[in-house]
Design a protein that fits this description.
Layout lengths: L6 E5 L1 H8 L7 H8 L3 E5 L1 H10 L9 H14 E3 L19 H9 L4 E3 L3 H6 L10 E3 L1 H7 L4
Parallel strand pairs: 1-2, 1-4, 2-3, 4-5
Length: 149
């Protein structure tokens, strides 16, 4: 009997912080599934740079060692999927240009799910004219869909 292939996912920065900094109960089943190889999480240089920048926000109260530890922990959980050439994906446009990178990453790596709590990204899940080629949903909804936790 073969082991099922892991489901491919992209986590936005808020979900990463919920999972690795706040130990949020809604993201812990995702973390367990990543650790167990049930989910394969993808990131790229642009998304990692955002995470590195966000960990420095005063609201998170992370010192340099804490920031580095969180960043290194996340890098161990993800597979890099950087752009290899010019990209032209048929994707809806997010009103917050900073979030478009997560849509592009999900398309590039063939993700099944983009997990977020960002309202503008979640709104794109309902885009009628140009629906994304992956599901955009919250951590709670992802856990239900994947029957985790």
């Amino acid at each position: 009997m073969s082991t099922p292939k892991p489901r491919r996912v992209v986590l936005d920065t808020n979900i990463v912080m919920d999972m690795l900094h706040f130990d949020d109960r809604h993201t812990q089943p995702l973390r367990s599934a990543i650790d167990a190889g049930q989910l394969q999480c993808f990131s790229d240089g642009e998304c990692l740079a955002e995470l590195e920048r966000v960990t420095g926000y005063p609201a998170f109260a992370l010192d340099d060692a804490g920031r580095q530890a969180l960043f290194e922990k996340y890098q161990r959980l993800v597979t890099r999927c950087d752009a290899a050439a010019t990209e032209d994906y048929r994707l809806p446009r997010c009103r917050d240009e900073d979030d478009q990178k997560f849509l592009i990453l999900a398309a590039r790596c063939g993700a099944e799910l983009l997990i977020t709590r960002d309202k503008l990204l979640l709104k794109l899940a309902q885009h009628r004219r140009l629906p994304p080629p992956f599901t955009i949903l919250t951590a709670q909804a992802a856990c239900q869909l994947l029957a985790l936790g």
